[in-house]
């Protein structure tokens, strides 16, 4: 499909720079067979049915944004995928000043050597020393806010908490699974009381999620791979939910992409561990999920393509037009949508 089909105009003031407080007070636009409904996230227990199951991503965001020096050149690095115990693939700012074998000093006793430059301009960074890389990043790194927020304000101490979900446990993401930012212990208790189950899986979100689609046709776009895991017990429980007539509702596109990577053509979800570069566009047949809760995405993005595959392109243009006209807040810190095809 032509990428232009996924374009829309978004007023800049619709981009949220801070999350709602409390988190579950964010607005939620529900799109189902009855139309569009303006709600808040706290209404979620009433929007679902007993026996349904929400699936969360328990990845934890690491301070993956680094700035350092190679000689007199300032080098910026955004880690996006672990390639080894001490090696991360990174997108580089000022990459023209960096060559294979160059050492970068990120301060606070943190240095890394660049190697293996890829076609997309990224480098492998090999971190020096014996300390776990996670400890080095805690000293020298910053939370990697999305570019559409970072271009408008500086990262601060609030982001260390705001940009982490209540489910965050497995360190390794460089972007938050933002749909889950709306959840609070109080909301989870209300969902439990309503008979709505929940499960967790792990997909370490990479910075590639923010890369623009530069191709003119979706067939020519290459997704960056991300590592994920669904264990056997979780897969079995999700299959049981559907066998009993419940719906599997992915919370976030990351959860959805991993479930769909693990599901076969027989609609059975199987254990999964490894990389996935699944790219979902209109025409895709969903095999493992029955609905999606997600934030509002960028025009021409792979994520808007994904929701258009789930609901239909014309329908999603209607959903987004409603959201823009009714002052919904967009992107990572913005409001939510509940999409029930």
UniProtKB/TrEMBL annotation:
InterPro entries recorded: QueA, QueA_dom1, QueA_dom2, QueA_sf
Broad EC category: transferase
Keyword Translocase: no
An MF annotation (GO) of this entry: S-adenosylmethionine:tRNA ribosyltransferase-isomerase activity
Gene3D superfamilies: QueA-like
Subcellular location, principal: cytoplasm
EC number: 2.4.99.17
GO biological process: tRNA queuosine(34) biosynthetic process
Chemical reaction(s) catalysed: 7-aminomethyl-7-carbaguanosine(34) in tRNA + S-adenosyl-L-methionine = epoxyqueuosine(34) in tRNA + adenine + L-methionine + 2 H(+)
Subcellular location: Cytoplasm
Matching Pfam families: Queuosine_synth
Keywords of the record: Cytoplasm, Glycosyltransferase, Queuosine biosynthesis, S-adenosyl-L-methionine, Transferase
Highest rank taxon of the organism: Bacteria
Similarity comment: family membership: Belongs to the QueA family.
Quaternary organization: Monomer.
Record's function text: Transfers and isomerizes the ribose moiety from AdoMet to the 7-aminomethyl group of 7-deazaguanine (preQ1-tRNA) to give epoxyqueuosine (oQ-tRNA).
Name this protein carries in UniProt: S-adenosylmethionine:tRNA ribosyltransferase-isomerase
Organism in which the protein naturally occurs: Stakelama marina
Gene of this entry: queA
């Amino acid at each position: 499909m032509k990428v232009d089909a996924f374009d829309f105009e978004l007023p800049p003031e619709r981009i949220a720079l801070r999350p709602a407080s409390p988190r579950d007070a964010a607005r939620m636009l529900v799109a189902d067979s009855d139309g569009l409904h303006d709600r808040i996230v706290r209404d979620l227990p009433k929007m679902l049915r007993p026996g349904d199951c929400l699936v969360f991503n328990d990845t934890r965001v690491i301070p993956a944004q680094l700035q350092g020096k190679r000689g007199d050149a300032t080098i910026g690095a955004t880690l996006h995928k672990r390639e080894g115990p001490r090696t991360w693939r990174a997108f580089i700012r000022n990459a023209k000043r960096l060559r294979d074998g160059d050492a970068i000093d990120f301060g606070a006793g943190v240095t890394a050597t660049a190697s293996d430059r890829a076609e997309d301009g990224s480098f492998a960074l090999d971190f020096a020393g014996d300390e776990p890389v996670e400890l080095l990043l805690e000293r020298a790194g910053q939370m990697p806010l999305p570019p559409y927020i970072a271009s408008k304000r500086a990262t601060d101490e609030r982001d260390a908490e705001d940009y982490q979900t209540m489910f965050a446990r497995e360190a390794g993401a460089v972007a938050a699974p933002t749909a889950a930012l709306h959840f609070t212990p109080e909301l989870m208790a209300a969902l439990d009381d309503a008979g709505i189950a929940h499960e967790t899986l792990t997909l370490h979100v990479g910075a590639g999620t923010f890369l623009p689609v530069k191709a003119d046709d979706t067939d020519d776009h290459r997704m960056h791979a991300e590592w994920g895991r669904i264990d056997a017990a979780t897969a079995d429980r999700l299959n049981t939910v559907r066998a009993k007539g419940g719906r599997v509702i992915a919370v976030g596109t990351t959860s959805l992409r991993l479930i769909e990577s693990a599901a076969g053509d027989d609609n059975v979800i199987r254990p999964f561990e490894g990389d996935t570069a699944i790219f979902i566009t209109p025409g895709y047949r969903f095999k493992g999920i029955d609905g999606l809760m997600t934030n509002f995405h960028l025009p021409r993005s792979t994520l808007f393509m994904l929701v258009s595959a789930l609901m239909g392109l014309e329908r999603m243009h209607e959903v987004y037009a409603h959201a823009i006209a009714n002052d919904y807040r967009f992107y990572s810190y913005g409001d939510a949508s509940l999409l029930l095809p």
